[in-house]
């Protein structure tokens, strides 16, 4: 290795030698992209095309479906199921806000105050993933059971009176109400909020806090003017990672909710697997996707993250 | 090591001017910092006169940055107090202290532009119209054009000036600089040294400057405190420290010193006569910081540029009354303005001599027998109980000094 570089080579000698590696280097990115592209093509692009065509088909299960460019399916789907769409957005939005409120202090603690406990707490944050999503959600059924201690405590503290008044619980129950669904969503997606928040907080140079303090900023002002703005990339990716899957989720609404708390995910699931109305299910999926894209685009525009380093 | 030229003594007067008022002095009394069993700063008393440019100089890990951070309030002292003028600020959080810091890596806010970075301190104190002040300050550091750029769009030197502007705009009682030029290349560092000195003269604020670069400390500061192993070894004007080091650490850390072990022979009025390897050396009493009992050991020091070299054949022409040592030239390197010789002498194996290239004697080549001689007034005496190598490149920062060695502070 060293022998080549040690001797000063003649001027024309290295030119032809260098050419082949340079060409190969230019191709390297594409080779690296290939597995990902193939994966996307087979498991995302092709099913998308397939579903898109399904959504404009008509027919019945017995006679088979044909592409008839029947776009009215979309209109019918939205007209019939707009309350479920709205609910999805509201529940997912509420869960995202709750995740942010619960997750930010914890992420802040892990990033700046945890010291040698940092790794342990991070493991605890993702520890629930070692149990199945379904089992964890079912566990909430026990936690929020009508005769359980949680509901009893909330009742005696008159919290349920407030939530009933807000319309997210009914009577003495928490289970089968919007609150239960929102709690389940919050619980299940909390790690997806904490981890990106932690990553962006952890990257903040501690000396910036010192500099802000040195420049007359009280601790809370330092947070407001320095820490929070610098953690915006984490806030944005955390809220997206929480909101997007939460708005398409159907397990929480299915296990913890009632027929009054059905989200659009539940509708799609029923259409696909029980009613077997594939065109409507496909159309609903596309409307949901378009809705999420619109919300996300608006959000990113608003939060102006491209301005951050 | 870098050769240090002797500074003119005019700097002393600037220090004195500020001392009389005493209103804005930084006073550290018995201040110390320990982390568990490790003592970063030994109990320390230090007064920085108002309006002076004060440097804390030392190798990494000597406690200089910790001392600075205790003044800023970023580090809580384990004992002692910090006062600014009449005010005891020991228990004040950083945001309540009339002190600002230029951080080593600048710590500019990456999400704010240059204007907002500089305006940060003013806005936190509730000042609404900052435009004029920020504009003036950016002009002072010659960055008026860059006001709307983000920090990462500026070069290192420009970022450094933003950091200075951001701190200075608050007119602090004291500006603390933590190795502010460490990240810059040599040429830019020179330029910024002059720039900082100019700004300091212009605004008249007390600067406390932490550095490991002895040349930087000497160029900029009125007063330098040399720190080693958590204590101040010696404090004084750059010229005073250079000419009269009182410990081997200072003698070696600031420039280069030749140290010879010698034995006290007789005391003759205000001169001490010493014996070293058969020869006799004369040392002024006033320049000896060590006890001098007859028969006791003393380290005799002399700076390389004070010494003249004469070929052994012409030894008779050397005027009487000069200290002399014989030796053989082991090595010589031509630097341009001077030639640096390493002399192998019975009293000191590697004696360094810097000779101005005025009239070069062609016989002074490696292997030549020479006589080294110098004016006894340039000799200084140090306590022989300390390591000869303290403060040299190899041992810098790790050398701990003996307790009886009388750290002069």
TrEMBL record, chain A:
The keyword Transmembrane helix appears for this protein: yes
Annotated ranges, domain ABC transmembrane type-1: 85-299
Transmembrane parts of this sequence: 30-50, 89-112, 119-139, 175-198, 226-246, 281-300
Signal peptide (from-to): none
InterPro entries: MetI-like, MetI-like_sf
Protein's GO biological process: transmembrane transport
Subcellular localization, as worded in the UniProt entry: Cell membrane
Superkingdom assignment: Bacteria
Residue numbers spanned by region Disordered: 1-22
CDD domains in UniProt: TM_PBP2
A GO cellular component annotation in the UniProt record: plasma membrane
Keywords assigned: Cell membrane, Membrane, Transmembrane, Transmembrane helix, Transport
UniProt membrane topology term: Multi-pass membrane protein
Keyword Hydrolase: no
Principal subcellular localisation of the protein: membrane
Family per record: Belongs to the binding-protein-dependent transport system permease family. CysTW subfamily.
Stored PANTHER family: INNER MEMBRANE ABC TRANSPORTER PERMEASE PROTEIN YDCU-RELATED, INNER MEMBRANE ABC TRANSPORTER PERMEASE PROTEIN YDCU-RELATED-RELATED
Protein name: ABC transporter permease
The organism's taxonomic lineage, starting at the top: Bacteria, Bacillati, Actinomycetota, Actinomycetes, Kitasatosporales
UniProtKB/TrEMBL annotation, chain B:
Subunit structure comment from the entry: The complex is composed of two ATP-binding proteins (PotA), two transmembrane proteins (PotB and PotC) and a solute-binding protein (PotD).
Region annotation (Disordered) ranges: 1-26
Catalytic activity, EC: 7.6.2.11
Pfam families: ABC_tran, TOBE_2
Cell membrane as UniProt keyword: yes
One CC-aspect GO term: ATP-binding cassette (ABC) transporter complex
Enzyme class: translocase
Keywords assigned by UniProt, alphabetized: ATP-binding, Cell membrane, Membrane, Nucleotide-binding, Translocase, Transport
Family: Belongs to the ABC transporter superfamily. Spermidine/putrescine importer (TC 3.A.1.11.1) family.
GO molecular function, a single term: ATP hydrolysis activity
The organism's place on the tree of life at top rank: Bacteria
Stored Gene3D superfamilies: 2.40.50.100, P-loop containing nucleotide triphosphate hydrolases
Catalyzed reactions: ATP + H2O + polyamine-[polyamine-binding protein]Side 1 = ADP + phosphate + polyamineSide 2 + [polyamine-binding protein]Side 1
Protein name from the UniProt record: Spermidine/putrescine import ATP-binding protein PotA
Xref: PANTHER family: SPERMIDINE/PUTRESCINE IMPORT ATP-BINDING PROTEIN POTA, SPERMIDINE_PUTRESCINE IMPORT ATP-BINDING PROTEIN POTA
Low complexity biased stretches: 1-19
Job description of the protein: Part of the ABC transporter complex PotABCD involved in spermidine/putrescine import. Responsible for energy coupling to the transport system.
Organism whose genome encodes this protein: Streptomyces aurantiacus
Domain annotation ABC transporter: ranges: 26-254
């Amino acid at each position: 290795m060293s022998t080549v570089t040690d001797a000063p080579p003649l001027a024309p000698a290295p030119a032809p030698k260098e050419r082949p590696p340079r060409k190969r280097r230019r191709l390297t990115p594409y080779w690296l992209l290939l597995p990902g592209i193939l994966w996307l093509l087979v498991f995302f692009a092709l099913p998308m095309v397939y579903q898109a065509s399904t959504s404009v088909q008509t027919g019945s299960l017995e006679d088979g479906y044909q592409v008839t460019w029947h776009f009215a399916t979309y209109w019918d789907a939205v007209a019939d199921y707009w309350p479920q769409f709205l609910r999805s957005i509201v529940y997912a939005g509420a869960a995202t806000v709750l995740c942010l409120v619960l997750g930010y202090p914890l992420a802040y603690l892990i990033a700046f105050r945890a010291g040698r406990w940092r790794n342990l707490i991070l493991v605890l944050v993702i520890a629930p993933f070692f149990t199945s999503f379904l089992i964890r959600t079912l566990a909430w059924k026990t936690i929020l059971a009508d005769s359980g201690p949680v509901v009893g405590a909330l009742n005696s503290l008159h919290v349920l009176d407030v939530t009933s008044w807000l319309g997210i619980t009914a009577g003495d129950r928490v289970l089968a109400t919007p609150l239960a669904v929102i709690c389940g969503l919050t619980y299940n997606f909390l790690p997806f909020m904490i981890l990106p928040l932690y990553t962006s907080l952890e990257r903040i140079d501690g000396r910036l806090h010192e500099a802000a303090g040195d420049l007359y900023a009280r601790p809370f002002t330092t947070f407001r003017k320095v820490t929070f703005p610098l953690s915006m990339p984490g806030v944005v990716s955390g809220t997206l990672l929480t909101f997007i899957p939460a708005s398409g989720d159907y397990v929480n609404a299915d296990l913890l909710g009632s027929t009054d708390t059905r989200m659009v995910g539940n509708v799609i699931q029923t259409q696909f697997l029980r009613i077997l109305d594939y065109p409507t299910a496909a159309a609903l999926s596309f409307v949901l996707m378009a809705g999420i894209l619109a919300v996300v685009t608006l959000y990113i525009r608003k939060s102006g993250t491209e301005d951050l380093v | 090591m870098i050769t240090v030229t002797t500074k003119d003594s005019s700097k002393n007067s600037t220090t004195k001017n500020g001392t009389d008022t005493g209103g804005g002095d930084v006073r550290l009394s018995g201040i110390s910092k320990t982390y568990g069993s490790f003592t970063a700063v030994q109990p320390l008393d230090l007064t920085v006169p108002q309006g002076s440019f004060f440097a804390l100089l030392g190798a990494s890990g000597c406690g200089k940055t910790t001392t600075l951070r205790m003044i800023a309030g970023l580090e809580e002292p384990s004992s002692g107090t910090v006062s600014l003028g009449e005010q005891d600020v020991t228990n004040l959080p950083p945001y309540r202290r009339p002190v600002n810091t230029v951080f080593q890596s600048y710590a500019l806010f990456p999400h704010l532009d240059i204007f907002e970075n500089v305006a940060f301190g003013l806005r936190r104190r509730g000042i609404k119209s900052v435009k004029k002040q920020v504009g003036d300050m950016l002009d002072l550091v010659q960055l008026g054009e860059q006001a709307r750029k983000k920090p990462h769009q500026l070069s290192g030197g420009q970022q450094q000036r933003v950091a200075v502007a951001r701190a200075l705009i608050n007119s602090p009682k004291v500006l603390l600089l933590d190795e502010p030029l460490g990240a810059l290349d040599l040429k830019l560092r020179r330029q910024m040294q002059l720039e900082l000195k100019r700004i300091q003269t212009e605004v008249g604020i007390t600067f406390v400057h932490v550095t490991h670069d002895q040349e930087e400390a000497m160029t900029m500061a009125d007063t330098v405190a040399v720190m080693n192993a958590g204590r101040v070894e010696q404090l004084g004007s750059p010229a005073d420290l250079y000419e009269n080091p009182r410990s081997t650490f200072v003698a070696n850390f600031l420039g280069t010193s030749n140290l010879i072990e010698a034995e006290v022979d007789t005391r003759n009025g205000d001169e001490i006569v010493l014996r070293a390897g058969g020869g006799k050396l004369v040392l002024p009493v006033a320049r000896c910081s060590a006890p001098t009992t007859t028969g006791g050991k003393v380290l005799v020091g002399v700076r390389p540029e004070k010494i003249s070299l004469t070929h052994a054949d012409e030894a008779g022409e050397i005027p009487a009354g000069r200290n002399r040592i014989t030796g053989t030239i082991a090595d010589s390197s031509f630097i341009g303005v001077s030639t640096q010789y390493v002399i192998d002498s019975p009293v000191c194996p590697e004696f360094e001599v810097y000779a101005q290239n005025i009239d070069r004697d062609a016989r002074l080549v490696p292997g030549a027998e020479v006589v080294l001689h110098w004016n006894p007034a340039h000799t200084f005496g140090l306590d022989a109980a300390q390591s000869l190598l303290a403060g040299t490149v190899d041992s810098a920062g790790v050398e701990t000094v003996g307790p009886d060695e009388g750290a002069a502070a």
